[in-house]
């Protein structure tokens, strides 16, 4: 329920500047994901928004009110931590109710809201248990429940899935997406280093690098129109192929980027590049060929269907789809 | 592990020896407390005679019950004061970063390195200045001073190990530092609180030098002083029987306390709060 605006926000720890001036607008009801490699400042940025860290300079506005000096509990936020911290000595019910009890809310109101949130997350049968009696997935749901009962204006998630195993991660991802659909007024900010999580959950993604914003946009925008080599390489799996030297010169740029699915295998006559298949990965529904065309690294080509094992060691002819070339100049920014 | 027979025997022989050496003085004290007259002065392993006379003598003696009451009062207040100060101090030392934190911790530790006798005269002046001489508060003050360094250090270490995120979650929930300490940290620190509290209690209960120096009248004495100043029928007689009886009696509360709280020291209370 809040528009969040960051104006030239900076954060230093001692003489070390972590956040180097960020301007960003997060819209009401939006699911915004901060993504970037470790050490890029994404978690710090989230903690600045939560109020757990103090902003060194710049303005942080919630709905046009400056909240730089407002304490976390009065900002109307709820936070889910990476290691889903629950109070170990309190039952699930008390864990959910703790914040409201501190806020001196009415007992019956607390009860209604705790039970409603528990029902929503299907943890209502666990209310009398202690955290140590729960499984990892259940604990994470309690942590999300604790955020929901607070009825926040802004939800903050700090890599909430990184402690879960792969199967549980997908299931919990759904549970995080659900409150977003159910409470479409609530602004959500989600930090992750996993670009798949970012792509699947986000309305918009903010890619961070070394404390500055590289690019903000919808997942599709970032995928289709990355505005730097860094974003192009960070978003998408497998990683975008980058070619330099003569390969790039041929299309008049410094770095040529092309995604694996945008390279076709063609007849020798139509070939732009030729090379040997040095490695192959079969994922069942599709497969990847690693073709050595004489560049620094083999080019990855994605094809649908099962892998024909006879491909390995073969010489193939490749042609990138001209409309899907990403041309970057010497400053790593896209050309024209 | 499959140990050979002689090694096992040697192991248990060692254990037995250690237990014997550790327990024998207490055994001898208990045995002596049931003996009277000249039987006390004859070395023996098994009691020669058995009587409750020494215990009866203690309770008919003026001031004994008063001494126990003094000791209970002083030790309890000391534990309470020490834990309150130590918990709040260790929260600051473990969680609030400020300039000179390390130095302060070292200084606190340094205080406990001085032998009691070295600070005795200074402390005496201080207590006179505060007008506490011959009052129980003199002992509460001095015991708290000597207990705090240890208590603060132990609790600081414990508190440092509590996950930062629990505190942050509480902050987001709207908890003030006082609420964090009392409603989030204290329940998690139970084992540490019980342990340090118990040690503080035992220290205060058994302390002799300060208790002797800072009290003058018989009705302000604590148990250890009362024991030491127990006098016999004549100047030449040391009443060993009653002394042993009192010693045995005043040890009982400590044993009871340890037994009670032993159950409360549940390790791994934090397990499950974070990750898992």
UniProtKB/TrEMBL annotation, chain A:
Domain of life: Bacteria
Record carries keyword Nucleotide-binding: yes
Alphabetized Gene3D superfamilies for the sequence: 2.40.50.100, Nucleic acid-binding proteins (2.40.50.140), P-loop containing nucleotide triphosphate hydrolases (3.40.50.300)
Keywords: ATP-binding, Nucleotide-binding, Transport
CDD domains for this protein: ABC_MalK_N (cd03301)
Pfam families, A to Z: ABC_tran, TOBE_2
Domain ABC transporter, first and last residues per copy: 4-235
Molecular functions (GO terms): ATP binding
Record PROSITE patterns: ABC_TRANSPORTER_1, ABC_TRANSPORTER_2
Keyword Protein biosynthesis belongs to the record: no
Signal sequence, renumbered to the chain: none
Protein family membership: Belongs to the ABC transporter superfamily.
Protein name in UniProt: ABC transporter ATP-binding protein
Taxonomic lineage of the native organism: Bacteria, Pseudomonadati, Pseudomonadota, Alphaproteobacteria, Rhodobacterales
TrEMBL record, chain B:
Cytoplasm keyword on record: no
Domain ABC transmembrane type-1: 68-261
Membrane-crossing residue ranges in chain numbering: 9-30, 72-94, 103-124, 136-155, 188-205, 240-261
Keywords: Cell membrane, Membrane, Transmembrane, Transmembrane helix, Transport
Membrane topology: Multi-pass membrane protein
Principal localisation: membrane
Similarity section: Belongs to the binding-protein-dependent transport system permease family.
Protein name: Carbohydrate ABC transporter permease
Organism lineage string: Bacteria, Pseudomonadati, Pseudomonadota, Alphaproteobacteria, Rhodobacterales
